[in-house]
Each structure stands twice: as structure tokens, then as C-alpha cells.
């Protein structure tokens, strides 16, 4: 029996997320005014963009910056080049391509629902979306631009100069560039998945196979890491919690995960647990893009995180449930041709 608890996220936001067993997102409390439905203290609905107290002018400015190639060194790529909003918020590559055709070293995570993550990047090196903006902007393998050059370029653009002055009293600064892009990214929520509708009491929103997958997802213990509104994104976990994932001598520095940030041995091979929302659209999977299909990813997780080998029937049910997590963006269902290999 499902128990529905409705709460307002405002002053009590921290308490609500404690009940979800995850840390609150970095979105300031005053920016969140929405209803959240908790189920068995494990899952929650994604807030609708209308329910968020976002600054519309900042969102519009951030949207323009997000899609403008002006912020890359040779003006050939934008944030949207790797985070394709018409699909799953990523680029469906194992490794993205930056300026000058440079192939990046790590898989690009989706930008959708990133405001629900307690940290940003696979290794959690950024605490906020604002901090995260500087990462790809300055990375020589991605956009390769420093703040000084970015500010100079935008100040030379009359349209941007005017828009920044309308939104920010101090005009174009690195803080304001990051603030505008982050505000836009907070608007990239994808509510109304079939699973969300099921959580709200629509028993027909999931078919029998998806429901069986949901129950299996819980009984296997997947929910211990993948919970909350993002169905993940609220903690770090070791890749290979029960069975070693990395072969000796077959790793690189990025495989060390959180260790690269903290230098603590206990954090070696630990990564931010990714959100599973829209997961059917974001193949390939994991920090290294090694799992080509959703079925591959389920098999790897079962083997290395749970020390189990799933039956084909169990895999089918879990994949069906995961496909039910695809939501809507701007009122339209997200999808892409091919989905992933079934």
C-alpha cells in the first residue's frame, strides 16, 4: 500500500529532504515553492518549472548563453553541443567532443534535473550549479575560455551588454554569467513521467511489467542509492561496492572518482550516484561510457553493486521500470530515435 505524504518545500525544505534520505539540492530555499509527494519515504516528484521561484529574465539570459558558441575559445561549440535538450540532456557519446575536435576524457552527464543533485560532476567537485559553470568553460579540452576573455567578448556584444545591464546592476561579470546559466539550468526539470503519475495515484500509469520492475528495484536494494526526487544524485558510492569493477592496472586517473578531490583513500573509485530520471535516453552509461545499453548497465550494477546475477526476466522488468522514468520538458515528452538497444 502506497502512503502519500504531501508537503510544502519552503521553510521545511531541509526536513522534507531528510525524510528522503538525501541532502537538499543547492537551490536556495526561497527559490523553491512546490508540492512534493513522498512514497514510502524513498521517492518524490520532480517539481514543475512553474512551481519554482525562478527569475524569468535570468532564465532567458542563461538560455541564450547556454546555446551560444561565443563562450568557447574558437566559437565552435556551446553548452548545448554536449547537453542536447531535444534528447536526454546529454549527447549520447561515451566521450564528448570539445574545441578543435578534442575528445573529452569522461562521459557527459545529463543537464536535466541537475538542480536536484547534491553535488555537480561525477566526482562532486562543484557544490553548486554556479560553480559547475566554470568547469567546462575553462577546460582546455571542452570550451577552453577564461573569464577575462568571456567578459570581453560579451561586453563587445551590444545585445548581451544591454541584457546584462537590465538584469544585473553591475553588468557582465563572471559571477553574473554563472548565475544566469545556473538559473536556466534550474529550469531544466522534467516532471510528469509515467512513474510520477503512478506516485500520484494513477495505478494505470505503469503496466504490470513496469510495476514488477518497480517492486524489484526496491527489493534488490537499488533504492538505497537511487532515491529522492532525482532517483539518485544525493550521495557518493563506490563503483564496485560488492565486487571489484576496476581491473588492476587497467585504470586511469578519472577512474579514481572522488579521490581526485579529497585525496582520501576511502574515496577512491567513489562517484556521485547519477539520477535515473530519463535514463533510457542517456546511453552510454557510467563515468567512462562503458555500458552501451540500459540492459548492459543493469547487468553491471547487479554484478558489481549487488553481487548478483539477474535472470533475463528480472532484467526485463528492471529495464521496463527504468523506461517509465522518462519525463516531459516544456510540456512535451522527451524521446530520441533509437532510445537504446533493447
Q: If you consult CATH, what is the topology of the domain at 56-186?
A: Cytochrome Bc1 Complex, Chain D, domain 2
CATH C-level name of the domain at 56-186: Mainly Alpha
* Measured distance between first and last alpha carbons: 31 Å
Major sheet: arrangement of strands: 1-2
Please identify which CATH superfamily of the domain at 56-186 we are dealing with: Cytochrome c-like domain
Which percent bin holds the helix content?
25-40%
Number of helices: 12
Number of strands: 6
Q: Which structural class do you get from the secondary structure elements?
A: mainly alpha
SSE succession: EHEHHHHHHHHEHEHHEE
Mean pLDDT: 88
Query: Which descriptor suits the 3D outline?
Result: globular
Stretches where pLDDT is under 50 for at least 5 consecutive residues are 1-38, 337-342
- Share in β-strands: 5-15%
Would you write up a description of this structure?
This protein is mainly α. Among the domains are: 56-186, Cytochrome Bc1 Complex, Chain D, domain 2; 191-235 and 273-333, Cytochrome c-like domain (Cytochrome Bc1 Complex, Chain D, domain 2), CATH 1.10.760. It has twelve helices and six strands. It has helices at 13-19, 56-66, 79-82, 129-138, 147-156, 158-167, 174-186, 194-199, 208-219, 259-262, 294-305, 312-323, and strands at residues 4-9, 34-39, 236-238, 270-272, 328-329, 332-333. The strands form three sheets. It has a two-stranded antiparallel sheet with strand order 1-2. Helix 2 crosses helix 7, helix 9 (208-219) packs across helix 12 (312-323) and helix 11 (294-305) crosses helix 12 (312-323). The two termini are 31 Å apart.
